[in-house]
Write a structure and sequence with these properties.
mainly alpha; 82% helix; single chain; 137 residues
Length: 137
């Protein structure tokens, strides 16, 4: 506990908030399992899939924020640079939200316009040829 007590109060509170956000995220991530078992009695229903998707989506923002906040604390402690910690935490948060929210929204919009998925053409010709060759025996 001695090292934690030496931290500036700001870092202590950021870490506390990170732990709270992690707890909220874990609760949201585990809720569909209990709901599925108790409410849906193990049945796979459309309502359950919608509920699970919404709770998963709700868990992602607090989880990303918690990880980035604790990353901020660690970078500050290791480098003793508030600026580097802030830049590193913000960059990681930008990466999380970009990959978890912005890119999927872009892919969904592209799909709605009937545009090919940006990753759809990666190796697809070779994969198709391999599968056709394998199927012919």
């Amino acid at each position: 506990m001695d090292g934690f007590e030496k931290l500036p109060n700001l870092l202590k509170y950021v870490h506390l908030i990170s732990l709270c956000l992690t707890a909220v995220s874990i609760i949201l991530l585990m809720t569909p399992a209990a709901y599925h078992r108790i409410v849906e009695r193990g049945e796979e229903t459309e309502h359950f899939h919608r509920f699970a998707s919404k709770t998963l989506l709700a868990a992602m923002a607090p989880l990303a924020t918690a990880i980035c906040s604790d990353f901020f604390v660690v970078v500050w402690v290791v480098t003793e640079s508030e600026e580097l910690a802030l830049i590193s935490g913000a960059a990681m948060l930008f990466l999380f939200f970009g990959l978890w929210f912005v890119m999927p929204a872009y892919w969904r919009a592209a799909s709605a316009r009937k545009a090919p998925h940006p990753l759809a053409s990666v190796g697809s010709t070779r994969l198709r040829a391999t599968l056709l060759k394998w199927a012919k025996g």
